[in-house]
Write a structure and sequence with these properties.
By secondary structure, this protein is of the alpha+beta class. About 55% of the residues lie in helices and about 20% in strands. The protein folds into two domains: about 10-40; about 95-230, Ribosomal protein S6/Translation elongation factor EF1B (Alpha-Beta Plaits, 2-Layer Sandwich).
């Protein structure tokens, strides 16, 4: 039996062509959708990266400002430390003029001074403690004031050593001078270092050396100055 197809060949080819075109169109739409989704995803990620970059840049700017402020504080701290140390070294609890007047006004009759040396220095163990205090307080700005207070307090730690050399008629006058200096309110640790015979022409005398220290926390008031005047009985001589 012979099958007879009454559908024209042109119709069949046209139908298959339309089916093929629909499939291509669907694939094209799918591809466009994928490309569109990828583009949107990339844009979202790019915006997120840009936002994160702005945050990081802002934090870096804040950190730079903090670093600059810290460096300025360090410079100020070094300048303040230098000023405090200089001030601590220069401050005098007892003016040298008053000290010299006290040493000369207490001289017994016939005793004269040949040489006088005044040295201010800080005890080694106290100096080490002060430096340690500074190192401890270098970390934070709030503790810097405490470090400054520790440095300024070195004024009270400075020791004033006094070397005295003079000539006396005898050891009795030397002993009297030591006793007079020991009774002074501004001196401490008065001690005889040396006393030996000294001959000038035919006159024989004693050349002596003493050492003493300025009393710790010695602060003279007007009343103390008047007391020195009255005790010396010779008037107050300022050099």
């Amino acid at each position: 039996m012979v099958n007879i197809n009454f559908v024209p060949d042109d119709y069949v080819q046209s139908k298959e062509s339309r089916r093929t075109n629909v499939m291509y169109l669907i694939l094209l739409l799918i591809m466009m959708a994928v490309l569109g989704g990828s583009f949107v995803t990339i844009k979202i990620r790019q915006r997120a990266v840009n936002a994160r970059e702005k945050v990081i840049n802002a934090k870096l700017a804040e950190a730079q400002v903090a670093i600059d402020q810290f460096e300025q504080l360090q410079k100020k701290r070094r300048a303040m430390m230098k000023t405090a140390l200089t001030t601590a070294e220069l401050l005098e609890t007892v003016p040298k003029s008053v000290l010299l007047a006290s040493l000369t006004n207490n001289l017994p009759a016939g005793v004269s001074l040949v040489r006088l040396n005044i040295i201010q220095k800080e005890p080694k163990h106290r100096a080490t403690a002060a430096k340690t205090a500074v190192n401890k307080h270098e970390q934070t700005r709030d503790d810097m004031a405490n470090a400054m207070q520790s440095i300024v307090s070195t004024e009270k730690l400075i020791e004033t050593h006094i070397d005295i050399e003079g000539i006396a008629p005898s050891d009795r006058q030397v002993a009297a001078y030591i006793q007079s200096l020991s009774a002074s309110s501004i001196l401490s640790d008065v001690a005889l270092v040396e006393s030996k015979e000294h001959k000038v022409d035919d006159a024989i005398s004693r050349r002596f050396k003493l050492k003493a220290m300025l009393a710790k926390n010695a602060h003279l008031t007007k009343q103390d100055v008047e007391a020195i005047k009255l005790k010396s009985g010779k008037g107050f001589r300022v050099f």
